[in-house]
Amino acid sequence: MPKAPERLGASGTRPARTLVEKILDLHTIHEEGGRSLLYVDRLILADTALGAMNTLRTDGHSVRRPSQTLLITDHYAPSSGPTLDDVADPERRVLLQGTEGMARNLGIDVIGMGDARRGIQHIVSVEQAYAQPGVTIVAVDSHTSTQGAVGALAFSIGSDLPHALATQCVWLKRPGMMRIGLEGQLAAGVTAKDVALALMVAVRANGALGYAVEYAGGFVRRLSIAGRMTLCNMTAEMGGLIGIVGPDQTTFDFLRGRPYAPTEEQWDQALAFWTALASDAGTTFDREVTLDVSTVEPMVTWGNSPDNAVPITGVVPDPAQERNPERRALMAKSLDYMGLQPATRMTDIAIDQVFIGSCTNSRIEDLRAAAQVLANRKVAVPTLVVPGSGLVKAQAEAEGLDAVFRAAGASWGEAGCSMCVSMNGDTVPAGARCASTSNRNHIGRQGRGSRTHLVSPPMAAAAAVTGRLADVRHLKAN
After folding, report:
1. Alpha helices in 106-248 (DSSP H)
2. Is the pTM of this model over 0.90?
3. Quick count: other Cβ atoms within 10 Å of Cβ 143?
4. Considering the domain 298-470, what is its CATH architecture?
5. Which residues, given as ranges, of the chain have pLDDT below 70?
6. 13-297 adopts what CATH topology?
7. pLDDT tens digit sequence for 175-200
């Protein structure tokens, strides 16, 4: 395992460093003009990577490190079935087949259609321990930061994918360092998703633009890996490039024994390295935000940005009360698109369907929370539940959660991105209103003209059984 490089200050002592700075230092090959050329430990491709692989081949390059590259089919995969034969749209079927075939021809391992492990790339990477503390991971997906939950430095690279495939390196402008400290205990009915939405309100969309965000504090230390994944996932909605949680015993216990995790003597070496991965005491961050999570209520969005959120006990805000003219105009535009009037109580808003899934909230504990609300109840609107991976699906079925969903009248789908991105046949019709556990409520995100309200899994289940946005705390326990 690598040792942290010595960077001595003017006094001859090493300056305090953040966790992110330490990992960047370990992977920096060259620095120039405020940018770092980083070595990439792991590269993840999605089923959207065909163009990048074609560019690589056309330019006469090969994949530099095929053994450190993995393709996971997720965006175009349908929730209707696990194999290529289940892809109803012929164009999508050909695209999936071509993408997986080209990846294999390039020597890249594929977790594709028909593979029991397949699912959303960020979830599969973490549960397979492909993501590990201190490694650099890049992918063409803004929610790659999800994998920072286990201490990986994971971020999206956009159009740089061909370069990364050919060189196993990427250029990165050094981000600012931001710390979000979370303390306190969650109240009943409140989840990590609600904390993420409350942070969105506090920090604002793009409030973390140009920053790497480290989540810390007593609440984070008590949080499960699944909850940490939700926080790191929503970092992208704040504009942050990187979201990360320093590895601890929770991380080590989670990773031990998973397919890509080190074993035997290498495990002991890795553990020694991982244990040392932490921000130094006294480190100065460029920006610090704190939140007492005990003050957070179940949250719900009303507009077309994740920071357009209020407690479920609140009302639709009035743009006339907003002093900032630019924000006032955006609020008015959102309310017009969403078909909402100021001062409407959130619990008075009827919904047309529900989606429980996405890389934000499709892990086993998310499904358990939704099933607890749906047990012995019936959904009032069409409800689709999609696990984040084939392994999550298998575990949910072993626990009987799928039977709970089906008994309630909900649909139980195959693993994948599903209705979050509307690229795979799962969409919200124009004008329809959906309570969704996903991460984005942008205009048309779930389908042309769709209207999305972001909520937690138990809040989505509450909306499903009441046919409106509802406070899950007010539903009588079964």
Report:
1. 121-127, 161-167, 192-203, 218-222, 225-234
2. yes
3. 27
4. 2-Layer Sandwich (3.30)
5. 1-14, 476-478
6. Aconitase; domain 3 (3.30.499)
7. 999 999 999 999 999 999 999 999 99
